[in-house]
Design goal:
With about 290 residues, the chain is an alpha/beta fold. The chain has six helices and eleven strands. It has a single domain, classed as Vaccinia Virus protein VP39 (Rossmann fold), CATH 3.40.50.150. The protein has a seven-stranded mixed sheet. Helix 1 packs across helix 2. The two termini are about 25 Å apart. The N terminus is likely disordered.
Length: about 290
Amino acid sequence: MGLSGRVRGTVRTGHKPQVCQMLSGSHQSGPGRPRATMLARMNPLEALDVFKRRVVPAMRDRGALTVLLTCVRWIVGYVLGRLGLSEASKGSFTYEGRRVPYFRHNYHYTWLGERNAEVALAKELFEAHAGEKILEVGNVTHHYLDDVDHTVVDKYEVAPGVLNLDVVDIDLPEGSFDLVVAISTLEHVGLDEDVLDPAKPARAVDLLKSLVRPGGTLWVTHPVGYNPTLDADLRSGAIAFDSLKALRRSPSRNVWRQVDVDDVWDAAYDRFIFAAHGIVVAEWTRPLA
C-alpha cells in the first residue's frame, strides 16, 4: 500500500549491503554497519578478523570441541536445508492450535534460524490483511515474499522503495495503518546505534501504536536474549501488549514449538551463529473507542 502523509526521511535506491554473518543470521551491530559481509565475499584479512572476533572468544567460552561441533552441525543443516531435506525447511510447527509450514528461502538460509518461523507467521498475517494499509518497520519481508506492496521504513538498509529513517522519527497522521509489523527489528533500537538509549524501544512502540487505526493491530516478533533490557520491559509489562506468545527452538535442531511465554525468557541468544532460541510474538489491538 502507498504511503500517505508526511515522513521525515528519504527513499534511497541502490544495492543493499549484506547483513549475513559468517555463518547465518540477520542481525546488525554498530551504528548502521553490518556485522560482517558474506563469508564468500571476505578477503583473507577480513576472514581472519572475524575468526579473532567470533571464533576465538567462542572457543574460549565454550571450548574448541563445542565450537567445532556447532560448525559441523551448521554445515550439515545448511546442506540438508539447501536440498530441502531438513525438517526445518520442509516441515511445520504448531502455533495456536494449527500447523504452520516452515518458510524456506535461500536468503539468509531461513532453515538455519528464526526466520523459518517468523516469516511463516508474517506471511499468514499479510494474507489475512490483504488489501489493507500495512506498515513494516525493518525491511524484512521484501527479501522473502513476492508482491510485497506495503510501506517499509528502515533506518539503515538501502533498497528501492525503502524509507530510510529512524523509527521514532516517523511523522504520519494518527491511525494511518490497519496493520503495523516489526519482525526481529525493535531489539536493535537504542542498542545497535551510535548512542545507547535503553528507553528508545518503548518510545518506538508508543509511536507505532499511534499509527494503528482503531481496530487495527501492531504485531511484533522479538528474539529473546538479544536485548536483555527489552526482554525485561516486555516481561514486566513496562512495554505493554495485549498478548505475548512464545516459540522455543529445539536445542539441536532449528525446529520450533509453542510454549508458555514464562518458559521462554531464559532462552539464550547464540551470538556465535547469531540465532535465537526463543521468540516472543507480541500483539496489540487499538480499541475501537
